[in-house]
Design goal:
Blueprint lengths: L14 E4 L9 H15 L4 E5 L11 E4 L2 E4 L2 E7 L3 H11 L3 E4 L4 H12 L4 E4 L16 H13 L4 E4 L2 H9 L5 E3 L16 H7 L5 E6 L8 H12 L5 E6 L5 H7 L4 E4 L3 H9 L3 E4 L8 H8 L3 E5 L3 H5 L7 E3 L4 H13 L1 H15 L4 H29 L1
Parallel strand pairs: 1-2, 1-6, 2-3, 6-7, 7-8, 8-9, 10-11, 10-13, 11-12, 13-14, 14-15
Antiparallel strand pairs: 4-5
Helix pairs in contact: 7-12, 10-13
């Protein structure tokens, strides 16, 4: 019996999503959100998306509203929203949402939460990005405390906050965040799959047939890429049976190209081309300690790669050490290099871990995740109706 058959038909679910960008493939947040929009449309659940960055009409899976914004220094692909009550009221009148879902704690998310509370609209949020941890990468550690205070106030105003990984959920609880619910992300097993492995692609990009270490993600310092650089240099000094590849783009790409002249930078990839890159590589290397989940880790596992990730944040909640991948000490390039060396030197273990990672990832389908989310939506709305009734009765 499908989850939609279990729902209370008396509850009208109409969802308004708020996100910092709706540009397709912009980042992990948008990829998750687009999958969710597709699921909702397939199940005839009305929805809209509000963002300062939206695609052309023909590329919109759902109706989208563009909010006024200004450019963000250093991040030209992102914009700061300037939402107004007039805009939100117009959107409410036109679509009549019964639930707000916030996907970014930016100015748009803040305004949406405040507006929802004034209008008694239930509001939920997904904690996608661990912003307080970014402060140290830009030498503004003094803002870390301010960041925690802001996020705690924002998310504690929500009726439910979905946390993709248990390590992050535990950290947020330690910072007095409330109304938290664990809801991991899924993976598109038809897109990320070993069946896309291509000898032609390997011969073209790796004519010496060396082992390919793959990093996938935005090229920004908050992904702890300095740790990857240091680990790579340690290994490069002792062996030449591997190459390092980067898929993705970002503001520090040119710096990285200068620092790693022997590495290969593939740039931004999507669709079948991205599937081929993943499946045709051997080991996934991901040093980030700032992930709330790390979609790319699960995508690498589904593609048959052995993931080697920092034992902190999202990856620590996905990987079982030496079973479905390897974890290294956070911000410890020597240990990072040791784990990579161990995998390169042990082909049988590499194959075993690859198989385990594949099986785990292919059990994490989006349909199962979204079924849980829809059930939670209805529970939030039922609780909201009960609260309103109690307030009315008390009055």
């Amino acid at each position: 019996m499908k989850v939609m058959d279990k729902m209370d038909s008396k509850i009208d679910l109409r969802i308004a999503f708020f996100s910092g960008t709706m540009k397709p493939g912009q980042d992990g947040v948008t990829r998750v959100l687009y999958k969710l929009l597709d699921y909702l449309n397939q199940n005839s659940i009305p929805n809209i998306a509000i963002s300062p960055v939206i695609p052309q009409k023909d590329d919109q899976p759902s109706e989208m509203f563009k909010v006024c914004s200004v450019s963000v220094p250093l991040y030209r692909d992102y914009r700061m929203s300037i939402p107004t009550d007039y805009f939100l009221k117009k959107m409410i009148k036109q679509f009549n949402p019964t639930l707000f879902h916030i996907h970014s704690p930016c100015s748009l998310g803040f305004a949406a939460v405040k507006f929802a509370k004034r209008k008694s609209i239930p509001v939920v949020a997904t904690y996608h990005t661990h912003f307080p941890s970014y402060a140290r990468y830009y030498k503004i550690r003094s803002l870390e405390l301010c960041g925690w205070n802001y996020l705690r106030g924002l998310y504690n105003s929500c009726d439910r906050v979905y946390i993709p990984s248990l390590p992050i959920l535990s950290e947020l609880e330690n910072h007095q965040f409330r109304n938290l619910e664990h809801l991991p992300h899924g993976v598109e097993i038809e897109i990320f799959n070993p069946k896309y492995r291509s000898l032609e692609w390997r011969n073209k990009n790796n004519p010496s047939n060396k082992k390919i270490l793959l990093y996938a993600g935005r090229l920004v310092w908050e992904k702890d890429l300095k740790d990857l650089i240091d680990a790579y240099r340690i290994l490069e000094a002792e062996r030449n049976d591997f190459i390092l590849m980067f898929v993705g783009d970002g503001p520090i790409r040119h710096e990285l190209e200068e620092m790693l002249p022997n590495a290969i930078f593939l740039g931004y990839k999507c669709g079948k081309e991205l599937s081929t890159v993943f499946a045709s590589s051997d080991v996934f290397v991901f040093p980030s300690t700032t992930e709330t989940f790390g979609n790319v880790t699960l995508e690498a596992m589904a593609s048959g790669l052995v993931p080697i990730c920092a034992d902190k944040g999202g990856a620590a909640g996905i990987i079982k050490n030496f079973q479905t991948g390897l974890l290294f000490k956070p911000n410890a390039p020597v240990d990072f290099a040791e784990k990579i060396r161990f995998v390169l030197n042990n082909s049988e273990l590499r194959k075993e871990i690859s198989n385990n990672a594949f099986r785990y990832a292919h059990s994490q389908t989006w349909e199962k995740i979204f079924e849980k989310l829809i059930l939670s939506y209805y529970k939030v709305m039922e609780d909201s109706k009960l609260k309103k009734l109690l307030v009315k009765t008390a009055a």
